[in-house]
Amino acid sequence: MLKLVVLVSGGGTNLQAIIDSIAGGTISNAEIKAVISNNPRAYALKRAENAGIEGICISPKTYGTREEFNRALLAAIQSYEPDLVVLAGCMVVIPEMMVKAFPNKIINIHPALIPSFCGTGYYGLHVHEKVLERGVKVTGATVHFVDEGTDTGPIILQKAVEVKPGDTPEILQRRVMEEAEWKIMPQAINLIANGLVKVEQGKVLIDGGNQ
């Protein structure tokens, strides 16, 4: 059974997709041990409570330095002995010490098709604003392993989403979530939970085939 710790900063819609997929059997051989948020007001913590999952808040505002916060966050995650750490709308910059503690065991969902519209400063609604400013016809979402860079780790899954005339950043954000994020994050977790994902030479291989 793959033990998950999910890190979330806001509403937790991707968390809910994971919870529902485990309950519905779309994700097998996995369980969420805890949900951790840096934001005490995050609705994701309520979603965890509703699902009977332990939820805790570790806020950088309660620590004197970022280093202290990073160490506290890492210690909290390690206390659950997770097999996989899932960043599901987590706005915290993951420190190098955490990447080293969980090599190829941290995954993130990004609301664009990496390597487009990613890297420093590309998060949340800002990604969709930039997509619309550039006038691209197709966007989407990416699930990837986390390394020391920003959105630079090995890509696990991607799904394309059409950009439509009249889209606002908010409308496009919702479509990307519904058509891509809420589908490929559970799918990626299921693949990992069933031993179908491995990383070789910086690339992800799924079930023996390069995806």
SSE arrangement, N to C: EHEHEHEHEHEEHEEE
General shape = globular
Helix content: 25-40%
What is the overall pLDDT average?
95
Structural class: alpha/beta
Main beta sheet: 7 strands, mixed
What is the spatial order of strands in the main beta sheet?
3-2-1-4-5-6-7
Radius of gyration: 16 Å
- How many helices? The count is 6
Number of strands: 10
Low-confidence segments = none
Ends: how far apart? 24 Å
Strand content bin = 25-35%
Structure description:
The two termini are 24 Å apart. Helix content is 36%, strand content 25%. The chain is α/β, with parallel strands linked by helices and 211 residues long. The relative contact order is 0.15. Strand 8 (197-200) and strand 9 form a beta hairpin. The strands form two sheets. A seven-stranded mixed sheet has the order 3-2-1-4-5-6-7, with helices on one face. Strands 8-9-10 form a three-stranded antiparallel sheet, with no helix packed on it. The chain contains six helices and ten strands; from the N terminus they run E-H-E-H-E-H-E-H-E-H-E-E-H-E-E-E.
